[in-house]
Amino acid sequence: MSKKNKLNLAENPDHFTGLTTGKPANKAAGLKAVKNSLKIISAEVGLVKGISVLNQLNQKGGIDCPGCAWPDPDDERSKLGEYCENGVKAIAEEIGKHALDAAFFAEHSVYELSQLTDYEIGKKGRIAQPMYLAPSASHYSPISWDKALGKIADNLHKLNSPDEAIFYTSGRTSNEAAFLYQLFVRAYGTNNLPDCSNMCHESSGKALSQTLGIGKGSVTLKDFEKAELVLIMGQNPGTNHPRMLNALQKAKRNGAIIISINPLKEAGLMAYNNPQEVGTVFGASTSLSDHYMQIRINGDMALIQALNLLLYRHEKNNPNTVFDHKFINEKTEGFESYLQHLDQLSLDDLIAQTGLSKDSIETVAQVLSNKKRIIACWAMGLTQHKNAVDTIKEVVNLLLLKGSIGKAGAGTCPVRGHSNVQGDRTMGIHEAPSEKLLDSIEQVFHFKPPRKHGFDVVNAIKAMYERKAKVFFAMGGNFLSATPDTLYTAEALSNCDLTVHVSTKLNRSHLIHGKEAIILPCLARTDKDIQNGSEQFVSVENSMGVVHSSKGSLPPISQDLKSEVDIVCSLAQQCHLSADIPWQDYTNNYDLIRDKIEATIPGFDNYNERVRQPSGFYLPNGARNNNYKTSTNKAQFSVAKAEAIKLEAQEYLMMTIRSHDQFNTTIYGLDDRYRGVYNERRVIMMNKKDMALEGLQHLDVVDLYNYTDGQKRVAKNFIVVSYDIPSRCVATYFPEANVLVPISSVAKVSNTPASKSVIIELKKVRG
Ligand SMILES: Nc1nc2c(c(=O)[nH]1)N[C@H]1C(S)=C(S)[C@@H](COP(=O)(O)OP(=O)(O)OC[C@H]3O[C@@H](n4cnc5c(=O)[nH]c(N)nc54)[C@H](O)[C@@H]3O)O[C@H]1N2
Ligand SMILES: Nc1nc2c(c(=O)[nH]1)N[C@H]1C(S)=C(S)[C@@H](COP(=O)(O)OP(=O)(O)OC[C@H]3O[C@@H](n4cnc5c(=O)[nH]c(N)nc54)[C@H](O)[C@@H]3O)O[C@H]1N2
Ligand SMILES: [Mo]
Fold it and tell me: Is the shortest distance between the CB of 656 and ligand 2 below 6 Å?
């Protein structure tokens, strides 16, 4: 048996799904998005049921969309629907009718299922009962909740140290479940709490807490109405945060300038046709970006530094007109050393790194010179690079020079991914918890939490690979498909004694498993959660630090599902931990959990009362109020050198991105409508000139290679799509290309996999 088969990983398929390509769109949303939403929801659950759920989505007191973390308006919500096309897809996937029960798993072996694509696996449906895979068994078989939890508890007890267990979290888990989960894990004795944030905005968190004293963004939705200029870097909101386009439209209508920095001309950054206004006087599309900087992958740090250098020159020529000296003097530190650093830089060298023209950079610097209220937005295009933390600090330098933080219409906006990823971190899901949090846990719960920091995602994979960790437990997510270096990670998971997943839907992580494996099916956001005879609700925190409730309303797909809260509490009880914590009371009444969150975590005063307010409440945010909680109580300028990634003649820099039809590893469909790529995901977008150099034609098939650390990584059979992308840069979809992302290629300081700067070579397979 080949190594790949032993790991249950399909050889890269050479059957394609039928690619067609068209012209990329130059505007997002509009009627097509509305039509598409209705089509999706009708197909999955029927129009009537679908619409009734959608009407509750993101409404006050309704269901928080399980898609992205973009906030809801504080005041009036749209009666026509406060959701987007991709929210509809998320809901359709979650409430789809297919229930996977014992009969399904008896019919299909693990190996058979593992040979399907992520798309095909996801379409199988929701898991309907707890399932168990015995050592060497070919099929999952049913198991009772008691037995399943008992097995997990036994395995945890058997370990030489609690640090041999790993407890992952994806970002959908509610505040209540996340708080209890970290409490359970720490009462058990470890800080091994890696989470999806480690692969996502960890770089933002690190950069922002060092410079501004808070790892979260500072702006609110209202700030977009007051901004004079919005920068959008490394983000594709038309697909990944469609409701952000409403905020951008408002900004634009109030006169803001929008500058987009992205290697691709993303439809959602160019223009927006608000579906809410279709057929109204506002029906025409709003053009969004005034300046589009089609930057080379990873050229951002050099670009921002070049802009700061040009601003400095403007300031020298026209003193006191460009920089906000009052703000700089009163609120910041490191200004002089930053200027000295700028003085030593070569503008031409910086510009060369960006691939942009000097003219375009000078024009944008001129625009920035005159603006005082700037919002900087960014997402994975900045965070998933080796120099991500420094790049984001450079963005902070720009805001500090302009005094564009801590006031209305200005500030930082790292746009979060999963709907509660920010809340999970606030609740203590963190492998490197603060002493303050641990002290607080100790005081409230009367046990000594471990102080030694645990494994983040990358270190957790290495620990399992090296057999230093033996039990892997995941609260949601799809660890195998989301993480880098797929074969390495597969081997790591296969090395475990036990892998456990608390999941809604079937995914690849259930099929690449330890010696034994367990799937625990849980309620999803849309499901009604009744405990001890009374209906419960949960709460979440959005990308702008607003905490609010979410209450599901649908009957669960099976009677055998438990809430995540119930699962954590039941497991904790089976583990007979020495800490005396009333787990059963928490399951029976989620208000009691919120009382403990209030006692443990700052900012949650009167949690139970305030979470019942229709729009929830804002958590305290120093940077928003011009109050920087760094070690010196000042915002920090940072000095770092921008260095280009060097490519050999045959090498390309690859970013792994999302299509319009996926939520991370959940593949809704095979189209990437805005980019004009239909019915195929194994594609590589490439510049025409590079194709000519390589002797490639549109639709040729290539194999992709990465050789980092002397290891050969291969992704076979990708179709070349000629695309408007800077030279030497290519794009593929995640997770298909994760096999090429080296485990050792991570961002400095944040340890985030550098999945947007993968060095690859390509070889033509056939024309
Ligand atoms: N529908 C839908 N919504 C989602 C998700 C989803 O998968 N589907 N995922 C959620 C999650 S967890 C997250 S984190 C967010 C992700 O949201 P995004 O960060 O928007 O997602 P990506 O597709 O990774 O897109 C990165 C963007 O950055 C650009 N980019 C890549 N490299 C660079 C670079 O070096 N410099 C610059 N300037 N740009 C670059 C790409 O061209 C692309 O436009 O979305 C969340 N929302
Ligand atoms: N190459 C590359 N890799 C990447 C990225 C990239 O841009 N490029 N992006 C990274 C980013 S930003 C992120 S956030 C990660 C995402 O990593 P993950 O969060 O681990 O992955 P998801 O695909 O979001 O997880 C989907 C699974 O979560 C489960 N699920 C869904 N809803 C619920 C729920 O309510 N409760 C529970 N318990 N389970 C649920 C379902 O079983 C579903 O199959 O991937 C990262 N990986
Ligand atoms: Mo993310």
Answer: yes
Architecture of domain 202-273+285-414: 3-Layer(aba) Sandwich (3.40)
- Kindly state if the Cβ of 482 falls inside 6 Å of ligand 2: yes
pTM of the model: 0.97
Residues of the chain whose pLDDT is less than 70? 1-8, 10-14, 79-81, 278-283
**Where on the phi/psi map is residue 133: left (φ > 0), alpha (ψ -120 to 50), or beta?**
beta
Q: What is the separation, in whole angstroms, between the first and last Cα of the chain?
A: 31
Residue 2: per-residue pLDDT: 36
Looking at 20-172, list the stretches that DSSP marks H as alpha helix, in order from N- to C-terminal side. 31-45, 47-54, 85-95, 102-107, 110-114, 118-122, 145-158
Query: Please, are residues 678 and 260 in contact by the beta-carbon 8 Å criterion?
Result: no
String of DSSP letters for 560-572: T-B-HHHHHHHHH
The predicted pLDDT at position 767 comes to 81
Domain boundaries, the chain: 16-26+647-766, 202-273+285-414
Q: Which pLDDT tens digit goes with each residue over 591-639?
A: 999 999 999 999 999 999 999 998 999 999 999 999 999 999 999 999 9
Cβ atoms of 549 and 611 within 8 Å: the answer is yes
The CA distance from 270 to 412, in Å, is 22
Does this chain's domain 16-26+647-766 share its CATH topology with 202-273+285-414?
A: no
In angstroms, the CA 79 to CA 511 distance is 42
DSSP-based three-state secondary structure for 293:
strand
Half-sphere exposure of 355 (CA within 13 A, CB side): 18
pLDDT at site 281: 56
Query: Measured over all CA atoms, what is the biggest interatomic distance in the chain, rounded to whole angstroms?
Result: 76
Beta carbons of 481 and 10 less than 8 angstroms apart: no
Alpha-carbon gap, residue 95 to 174, rounded angstroms: 18
> Is 223 close to ligand 1, i.e. is its CB under 6 Å away?
no
Helix (H, G, I), strand (E, B) or coil at 405: coil
16-26+647-766 CATH fold? Barwin-like endoglucanases (2.40.40)
Angle made by CA atoms 752, 757, 763, in degrees to the nearest 5:
135
Gap between the Cα atoms of 411 and 376, Å rounded: 6
Q: Dihedrals φ, ψ of 404, to 5°?
A: -95, 55
Q: Which residues surround ligand 3, an ion (CB under 5 A)?
A: 200, 417
The two beta strands, 683-686 and 729-733, are antiparallel
Where in 213-285 does DSSP place strands (E)? 229-233, 257-261, 271-273
C-alpha distances out from residue 172 to 557, 569, 716, Å = 19, 18, 32
Which pLDDT belongs to residue 5? Answer: 45
Strands 271-273 and 286-287: antiparallel
Q: How many helices (H) and strands (E) does the chain have?
A: 31, 33
Q: How far is the centre of ligand 1, averaged over its atoms, from the C-alpha of 73 (Å)?
A: 23
Answer whether 565 contacts ligand 2 (Cβ < 6 A): no
Regarding the beta carbon of 383 and ligand 2, being less than 6 Å apart is answered no
What lies within 8 Å, CB to CB, of 208 at 6+ separation is 214, 215, 216, 217, 392, 396, 412, 414, 623
